[in-house]
Request: fold
Amino acid sequence: MATIGAHSFCGASARAITFEPALRLTPKPHTCGVDRYFAFARVDDRAEIAKCYRLRYEVFCLERRLLPPEGYPDYLESDAYDSHSLHFLASDLHGEPAGTARLVLNGPLGLPLVHHCAFEARYRFLASPDHPLSARYAEISRLVLSRGFRRRRDDTIYGGPPRTSPADGYARSFSTTPPPADIPEPISGIFRLIYQESKRRGITHFVAAMERSLQVRLKRMGFPFTSIGSEVDYYGSVRPYVLEVATLDRNLAALKPATLDYMVSGLEPHLKPVIRSNEAGAKSAQADAAGWRAAKIA
Reply:
């Protein structure tokens, strides 16, 4: 079973979008996006965040038994890291919660995986929330998809290919930039909002703890997470991985341009990546490496 540990993982277009009144979807600036069959939002309202917690409880506690149900008498799975996290919710066009994830930002507690994983030397600074580089790292965490949206034959715990017809479960279609065909839906929309919020907040690196099989799958999708530590028992055998946002941009531009178009759909123009030529990119990589060597990282 491909797993991103229980503490770990695994917008709209630039033009105005209108919805039929019956759907009652009201986009908020910088927080929402609508694909053909799902709406996505970064949620701040307590009632909306509770939907995320309830979905996490159903998957992590009742379905996968990674966390004890009796530890959550209110049927809402949450922890201390939620207070300094961004929460994302995917809903179908009838308002039914379909999936959720959070992006844990650097804070007094640090990131969840630092308390469970051992890192390579150059990433050990992550254990220090006060280190100047730590503020640029965030952890993709608590990624779940409701069982009700994993009923097709080829679906995994993270869903399956995008729905292409009303026979797949929904009759209405609102297309912005089409979601990529090789990323499970609605995970694609959640990833897009995580990516865009990271751009807006100056986050330069994602970290996550996951099984090797899932890392391979994500790499095939165009998300080249790389290992930064040894394997540990953290809700199963996992390793810590990192993905630089700039590396993601370059990789998608070279190998998955349609996916990159989707990821930046609705992102403010000044935040969209400017892909350099190979020569310029090589010089940038050399400069980055020099910066790492110059940084005094314990």
Remarks:
- The chain is about 25% helix and 20% strand.
- The chain has one domain: 21-294.
- The CA atoms of residues 87 and 102 lie 4 Å apart.
